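Supplementary notes for students who missed Thursday's class. We covered one full example, reproduced here. Read the sequence, then the structure, then the short commentary at the end.
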Amino acid sequence: MLECIEIQEGIVRQVTYTILVSWCSLTIGMCLEWTWHNDDVKTEFNWSAFENMSKTLIYAGAIISAGPAALVASMQTKLREVLIIGIFFTLCGSIVLMTCSTSALSTLVAGRILHGMGAGIVCVVVPNYAAEITEPKYRDVLIGLHHVHLLCGMILSHIVDEYNMDSYMIMGTVAMAILNLIALYVIEDPPYFQLIFYENLRKSESDCKYIDLSSNSCHSMLRKRDIDKIIYLFSIFTKKQYFRPLLVNICLISIQQFSGNISLMYKLQCTYGVLVFPFSGLVSTMTSILLISSMFCLLSLRILGKKYILIISGLGMVITLFLVNSTYYMNSMDSLWLPSLIFIYIIFYSIGYGPLPWILMPQICPRKSKLWTSGVTVSLYAFLNLIINQPFIDIKRYMIYMLSGVDIFLLIFTVVSTIGTIFAFLFIPKIKDRIPS
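Structure (token representation):
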């Protein structure tokens, strides 16, 4: 009886710690969709270009921070401390933006880069923390909270943006970051990382025990050990058991970003939003759909499994995109069928290729390489978002359409979704409720 109570308390503690850690993603989601509403900046610069620069800066910051976060976490085997650094970057970025006065451009650049650096660190650490600490029965759902909280943060940001209350948005981000820092101080590192850290500490102490501390011998020995560790960490990706999961994660993120979800959601919201979704002015309808569908995905994982959900998602996306291609050029049917098909496509995307790459990222990798793999994956995710959000993409698409009469991007989205379905069938492993060792 006592053992059952201890097990239940342990599960409650794991779930509580994971929820507290994943709340960091809510703060990052607020930053990802945050927009700048300074009238001086609007009048002095082109607003659309300035908003695009804001997105570019945050993704550039994520690219900068994801790799070093994975390096530090791998070497020091401390996840909580690295996550605290990420939230601290987010807090500093929000404080910088709050101090904006006449130098709006410089503060925007500094604040958004710091936001991006915090986002990169959080997206590397949070899924890995959840994968390491939770029981297999709850692991998929608790890892998926990272994606769910990101979407919740975006919805919150859209709601605040409706009323142009950018100062409230920044203050809310500051408050959330402070709450996150307080919460992170009361949790612990996952047991595996605690064990490795203290083993390394004991080895370091035993190596230095009989060395003259007045000399630099102990320091040189520890420094050499760190260098050897870095070399080892870089070399593990040359082995098949480490290299293949990295390639799987890279392919999943690439398929996710090039399947056209951002472009099609933008078209639906801008062209048909007022007619199809009359309440889209109050809250981002598309983000809400992503959130609801992602939660459905998490609830159905235990029944269908990650591999088959990805296949179903891919097949739905392919069929829907084939229909979109066939109706896109029928002007009489455009206003009726096209928004409905895009709406269905977004649902299929968000039940599979939206949340599942984040859930699979820490689970298909061995423990020795999963932080490194996550760092590479998050950097790639930020880089692809940076490219996709550039205005020249839409300009090129419009030019090609006007010259040839063909929307080549729709064809690319269809091909990528087809490749994604085949890839999920051939290469996604069936995970038996465990983390590979």
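Commentary. The chain is about 80% helix and 0% strand. Confidence is low (pLDDT under 50) at residues 41-45, 274-283, 433-437. If anything here is unclear, bring it to office hours.
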